[in-house]
UniProtKB/TrEMBL annotation:
Keywords: Methyltransferase, Transferase. Transmembrane segments: none annotated. This is Class I SAM-dependent methyltransferase. GO terms for biological process: methylation. It comes from the Bacteria. Residues 165-274 form the Methyltransferase small domain. Residues 1-24 are annotated as: Disordered. The keyword Methyltransferase applies.
Length: 377
C-alpha cells in the first residue's frame, strides 16, 4: 500500500454526477489491503484508488458495506421526525464511506481494471462524452450500470399498457399506485372542449403519456432536471405520442402558455434536502415545489378546469408535515378540494418488516397516496 501525496491527489480528473467533491486524501489499494483497514480509512476521509482487478474491487466494497451496516447505531427514542432524520444521516454516512472506493475510467468510457465488464454504453448514456481519463466512485459507477439496465429493459406500467424507460438520474415509476390514480380520476369538464394539460415535474413522462392516452391532445411537460425532459421526450417517441407531448422548459409552469383544462403535479413527497440528483424525486426542500404548484394553480386553469395533486401522506406519519399544513396551503392559495382518490402502496417496503428501521416501516405500512382534485375557491 503506497501513500500518495495530498497535493495533486488524483492521477486523473475527478468526476461525480452527484456533485460530490474530490477526496482530499488518497491511498492506492489492492488485494493486500484488508477490508477492516479499508473501512477505517474511508471513515476517516481517506479515499482508496483501486489498482487490483474489478472483481476484487466489488468484494472490497461489499465487505465495507457489511462493516458499515453492523456498526449502524440503533434508532434513539424520540419523535418520528427525529428518528427519520437520524435514519437519513446514517444513510448519508453510509453513502459517504462507500463512495471512497474509487476506480479509473478511460476517455472511451471503459473501466481501466483487469476483468472489468464492458460498461461503455452505460457510461456514455450517463456521462456523455469524456475528453480524458477520469476517476469515479465505484458506488456511483454501479448506479450508472444499474440505471442503464432499467433504461434498456424499461418498467412495465399496467395503467399505460406499455413500458417506460427511465434515464440515469430520473426517478423510475416503480410505484405504480400513483399512476393508477391518474388513470381512474374523472377528467374535469373543461377537458372535453379544451383537451389541454400540464404535467409539472414530469420525470419520465409517464403521467403525460397516460394523459395523452386518455384523450388530452396537448400535454406540456416541465421539469427542473434536463435529464428528465430528455427522458420524457424519449418515452413520448417510443409510445408514438410525440405529437401530443411537448417539453416546455425547466420552470415549474410552462412560460407564456396561458391556461389549461388540467394541471397535474406529483411533487417530491417528503420535505427535506436531497443529497443526490435521484433524491430530488423524493425530497422537496421546504415544500417549495408543492407550494409553488398550489400558489400558481388558480391562474393557470380554464373555467371548469382542475389541478390534480398526487401526494403521499408519508410525511404526515413521519411528523414532517401535518394534514392541517397541507390543507392550509391549499386554502391559502385560493383553492378548494373538489374530490380525492386514495390508494395504498403495494411495494415491498410497505409490506415486509424492516428490523433495521422499524419506525420507517411502520410509517410506510400506514401510508396512503392520494390524488387531490383542486379548483379555484
Amino acid at each position: 500500500m503506497v501513500t500518495l501525496p495530498t497535493t495533486s491527489v488524483l492521477p486523473a480528473p475527478w468526476h461525480s454526477e452527484n456533485g460530490t467533491p474530490p477526496p482530499r486524501r488518497l491511498i492506492a489499494a489492492d488485494d493486500t489491503l484488508r477490508a477492516e483497514a479499508a473501512y477505517r480509512s474511508a471513515c476517516e476521509g481517506t479515499a482508496l484508488l483501486w489498482q487490483g482487478d474489478y472483481p476484487g474491487a466489488l468484494r472490497l466494497l461489499h465487505a465495507m458495506r457489511r462493516r458499515a451496516e453492523r456498526r449502524r447505531p440503533r434508532s434513539a427514542p424520540g419523535s418520528p421526525a427525529e428518528a427519520f432524520r437520524q435514519h437519513r444521516r446514517e444513510r448519508a454516512r453510509l453513502a459517504r464511506v462507500l463512495g471512497m472506493l474509487l476506480v479509473p475510467l478511460g476517455a472511451d468510457h471503459h473501466v481501466r481494471l483487469h476483468r472489468a465488464p464492458d460498461v461503455r454504453e452505460a457510461c456514455r448514456a450517463a456521462y456523455g462524452p469524456l475528453l480524458d481519463n477520469r476517476i469515479v466512485s465505484l458506488r456511483e459507477l454501479l448506479g450508472v450500470i444499474g440505471a442503464h439496465q432499467w433504461r434498456t429493459r424499461g418498467v412495465e406500467v399496467p395503467a399505460l399498457g406499455a413500458r417506460i424507460h427511465p434515464h440515469y438520474g430520473v426517478f423510475s415509476p416503480v410505484r405504480g399506485e400513483y399512476v393508477d390514480l391518474v388513470a381512474r380520476a374523472p377528467l374535469p369538464p373543461a377537458a372535453h372542449d379544451h383537451p389541454t394539460a400540464y404535467d409539472l415535474g414530469t420525470g419520465t413522462g409517464v403521467l403525460a403519456a397516460l394523459l395523452a392516452r386518455r384523450g388530452l391532445h396537448e400535454v406540456l411537460v416541465t421539469d427542473a432536471n434536463p435529464r428528465a425532459l430528455a427522458c420524457a421526450r424519449d418515452n413520448a417517441r417510443r409510445l408514438g405520442l410525440a405529437d401530443r407531448i411537448e417539453t416546455a422548459g425547466t420552470g415549474l409552469y410552462p412560460p407564456g402558455r396561458g391556461r389549461a383544462a388540467l394541471v397535474v403535479c406529483n411533487p417530491p413527497w417528503l420535505p427535506g434536502r436531497p443529497s443526490s440528483a435521484l433524491d430530488e424525486g423524493v425530497y422537496d426542500p421546504g415544500s417549495r415545489m408543492l407550494r409553488s404548484f398550489l400558489d400558481g394553480l388558480a391562474d393557470r386553469l380554464l373555467p371548469g378546469g382542475e389541478g390534480w395533486l398526487v401526494l403521499s401522506d408519508l410525511a404526515e406519519h413521519l411528523g414532517l408535515r401535518s394534514r392541517a399544513d397541507l390543507l392550509g396551503a391549499v386554502s391559502g392559495a385560493g383553492l378548494r378540494v373538489t374530490g380525492r382518490l386514495d390508494t395504498v402502496p403495494r411495494h415491498p417496503r410497505a409490506t415486509t418488516p424492516d428490523r433495521a428501521d422499524p419506525l420507517l416501516h411502520t410509517a410506510r405500512a400506514a401510508e396512503v397516496t392520494s390524488l387531490w382534485r383542486l379548483a379555484p375557491a
